[in-house]
Design goal:
The chain has a domain of 102 residues: Serine Threonine Protein Phosphatase 5, Tetratricopeptide repeat. Helix content is 89%, strand content 0%. The chain contains seven helices and no strands. The longest helix is centred in the middle third of the chain and has 49 residues.
């Protein structure tokens, strides 16, 4: 009895071979459509790859600008040179209006600090609240909340 089942299994065609033969037959019968589909797939893959490269390049540029802004702000804190504060504010304004994600909210935190340094507490509070409500980063939200509490004590 067991031998009979083994013989039946051995004589049964393999599923992988069957699928391969079916696909081969389909490709032979529909060569033109398969080539069009392959070309479309290659175009889609190329477009996705190009987008990823472009996106990484843009993220690098934003990161570089953020570094320049932070450096200008730190220089201001050490030297109290008004030109450095203006430079930092310009950079952070550009990032906050054009970028998305963490760089945007980091810029808004620095803009709030700049507004505090200039005595504009209401504008700083609005920026801190924006970061607190909209940022997905727990660290940025925590920093904004602490700043809000500090401003509310005054």
């Amino acid at each position: 009895m067991a031998r009979k089942k083994e013989k039946e299994l051995i004589h049964k065609p393999d599923m992988l071979v069957t699928v391969f033969e079916s696909v081969s037959l389909y490709i032979r019968e529909n060569t033109k459509q398969c080539l069009y589909g392959l070309a479309a797939l290659l175009i889609i893959v190329a477009a996705v790859a190009a987008y990823i490269v472009y996106s990484n390049h843009q993220a690098g540029k934003v990161q570089y600008q953020l570094t320049l802004g932070i450096t200008a702000w730190e220089t201001y804190e050490q030297t109290r040179a008004a030109g450095e504060m203006d430079k930092a504010e310009g950079i952070f304004q550009k990032i906050a209006s054009g970028a998305s994600g963490k760089p945007r909210y980091i810029s808004k935190l620095y803009l709030a600090n700049i507004n505090l340094a200039r005595g504009k507490q209401d504008e700083a509070l609005k920026l801190y609240q924006d970061v607190s409500k909209n940022s997905s980063s727990k660290t940025l939200t925590y920093l904004a909340d602490r700043a809000i509490k500090s401003l509310e004590k005054k």
